[in-house]
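Can't paste images in this forum, so I'm doing it all in text. The chain is below; anyone willing to post the predicted C-alpha cells underneath?
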Amino acid sequence: MRIGELLGVQWEDIDWAHDIIRVRREIFWLRGKEAAELGESGQPLWRFSTPKTRNARRAIIIRSRGLKEALELHRLSSPQSPHNLVFCTRNGTPLQPRNVYRKLQTTLDHAKLRRVGLHSLRHTYDALETAAGTHAKIIQAQMGHASITTTLDTYGHVFPAPYLNMGTDLDELVYGAKDAPAKILLRNQAETHQDKNDDEQNSSDTTSTQPED
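Text version of the structure:
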C-alpha cells in the first residue's frame, strides 16, 4: 500500500472473515502554500481523498497469518479515533508521513538493518510476490497499478527464476509427471552418463591389474 492509503485505512475497511483490506480512500496532507491559501498556515492540515484511479480502489488480500494477528492485537490496544482510523496518533488524529518515516528508521536501527524509505517496503512486497511466482495480473491488482506494464517494467527483472522449469512444467501438464518427455530425456541422459562412467571405471580397474612395463 502507498503511505497515504495506509494512513487512510479505517476499521470498517478490514474484512476479517475474508482476510481483505479494502482501499477506499487516502489521506492527503496540505503543506506550505496550500495551507496559507486556506488561512491556516502553521497548522498541519489533512483531507480524505478518493484514490485517483479505478485500479487504486482495490481489495488487498491479507496473505500473512502473522499480519492478521498483529492487526487484531493492534485493534485491542490502539487509541480511539473520531475518524475510526486504524493507524493514528494518541489523540486519534491522522499520522503524518514524516513521523512514520522516523519511526521506521528507529525500528530498523534497533534491528541493525539497513535504512530504507517507506516506499521501499512496497517494492519489497512486490518483488517477493514476483519471485514467489505470483501471476503478474494478481500483483498488479494488489499494488493498484493502472497498467500491468508498470508492474512488468518495474519488477520484470525478478521474473526469470519461476520460468527456469517452464519446459518440464509444460510437459507435466500435457503428458503427466511420470511420462513427461523432458524428464524421460533427462533420465536417459543420466543413465547414459552413468553407463559411460561405469565403462571407464571397469577399464581403469583392468588396466591397473596389468603388470607395469
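DSSP finds nine helices and five strands in the chain. The longest helix spans residues 181-209.
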